[in-house]
Fold FAD-binding oxidoreductase.
Amino acid sequence: MASPQITIVGGGLLGAAIAYGAVREGARVRVLDQDDGAFRASRGNFGLVWVHGKGTTMPDYVQWTKQGLRLWPELQQELFDLTGVDSGLQQPGGFWLGFSEAEVEKRAETLEKINESGGDVPFKIMDRAELKHYLPGLGTSVVGGSFCPLDGQANPLMLLRALHAALRLKGAEIVNDVSVEEIKYDAGNGTFRAVARDGQSWTSDRIVLAAGLGNADLAPQVDVHAPINPTRGQVLITERLQPFLDFPTNKCRQTKEGSVQLGSTAEYVGFDDGTSTDKIEWLAQRAVETFPALARAKLVRAWGALRPLTPDGYPIYQESPTFPGAYVVSSHSGVTLAASHCYVLGPWVSGFTQTPPEFDSFRGERLLDPNASFSNGY
């Protein structure tokens, strides 16, 4: 039996991870990627590998995320052995930090609720004195926080580089500078054709739509409901500093190279992925309140990026009900879930494995409930 030819629309962290997961299992893979002018959430990702606090209203998402964290070390080692590129994974645990007692109490209630629903996510609430044992440079504005030993961080740009390098080494075809606008299905031979804006087209047995914000237009063409909207996040980065932060936090993290990444905002500004003075000032001020030593650090870069979010913030992983072989995948956790996207979604979209049972929770139809209200967590 010949291996399936798969076209994956989208070469970001999500599409590249799935593509690598498919090609390593023997599928023939083609990735269609846009040009550098595209909205690229992957290149603006904050880089946390994180579970605690996620999945407050969806227990399946908690387990899915925990699985992703368990698989991450295997992916890190495999990509490094194959490409020599270090994706920067560190999993020492991570801290969420609060600036008021009420905020910390609410945090504790949220984490307890997740575990009452079966989450089984280890965490500990700490007061300021205990936090300072792990984070000695902590500012006086921080009154408490939570810690989860499963959490960590990675380097999104190096992960993306490693995935693309691995794809090439495994023989995948990567086509850059194309913007796919139309998906056509040939019922006679059961194949799909991806048609780009400039008229180029590619035919395959299966097609995976991993186009981020572009899925809002592409998914309906294969009868999958996928309302994806942009939320802007702005992030700052400092010059390289001497190591002072051994654990990532929800507000800042120090990279292996020494720079400190500060984030992030959540703004509903349409498709504007720029930066703004007021938000940069707010991020910098909060960073100094969190770690006062950062007042002496030089900021070297600020950027904005658009998160592709569903109304409830959870992913969509779904095969088309009317066009078998067409898949819609959408997730804004391209770093945290990279290993699951590779090792679970890659074989699944290739037809090598059955649909995981928990994927019923990730179907787009959940967002059609007229009586439901949604919050994406930002």
